[in-house]
Amino acid sequence: MVKAVFPGSFDPPTFGHLNIIERGSRLFDSLDVVIAVNSSKTPLMPPEEKKRLLELEIGKLGLSTVRVAAYEGLVVEYCQTIQAQVLLRGVRSMSDFDYEFELSVLNRHLDSGIETVFLPTEPKFFVLRSSTIKELMRLGGDISAMVPSSVAVSLHNLDL
Ligand code: ADP
Questions:
Q1: Domain total for the chain?
Q2: 49-100 per-position pLDDT tens digit
């Protein structure tokens, strides 16, 4: 049984994240989507709201082997707690890869029993990143192709 963990800030959750979740769920026996909680940063959305939205969208996709958790601490520690062998990450570009590669080396140093697996983005989600969505929201741009409508509604209710 191969258990995987897909960690991220998910601030906000996007179609790009959901695509990696859907594809990851087909590769592994179970997949935990882990919302990283960083008490020294103020996210756009509180972790409970991200969890609610991710659970809602994962439910719509009918992915019964996927769970969502919010976690403050090292992702490797979360993997150890549930005995996951794989850390799943998505890559959009070479700059993502640079960052993801360094992170994978660091995580490997922390626990060499956990393998990082990269999935390349689906080309149509290649420009999707949280910082772009935040900027578009602030300027009143259309984000409907980037995030599910539940996320768009939640974002519109935030004071940006
Ligand atoms: P972001 O980089 O958008 O701020 P996160 O920190 O939440 O997002 O990223 C969590 C994981 O999801 C990372 O591995 C990131 O590379 C991946 N990811 C985010 N957006 C996409 C996308 N559009 N396509 C593929 N992977 C993505």
A1: 1
A2: 999 999 999 999 999 999 999 999 999 999 999 999 999 999 998 889 999 9
Q: The domain that contains 88 carries what CATH number?
A: 3.40.50.620
As for ligand 1, residues whose beta carbon falls within 6 Å of it are 8-10, 14, 16-17, 20, 89-92, 96, 121, 125, 128-130
Mutate to test the pocket of ligand 1, among 22, 129, 131 (most ligand atoms within 8 A of CB): 129
Report pTM: 0.94
Calculate the dihedral angle through the C-alpha atoms of 56, 62, 65, 69, rounding to the nearest 10 degrees: -10
HSE (side-chain half, CA atoms, 13 Å) at 118 = 16
| Catalytic annotation present for 89 | no
Range of the structural domain that residue 72 is part of: 3-157
Lookup result for tokens 């960690």: 7
**φ/ψ (deg, to 5) at 127:** -90, 0
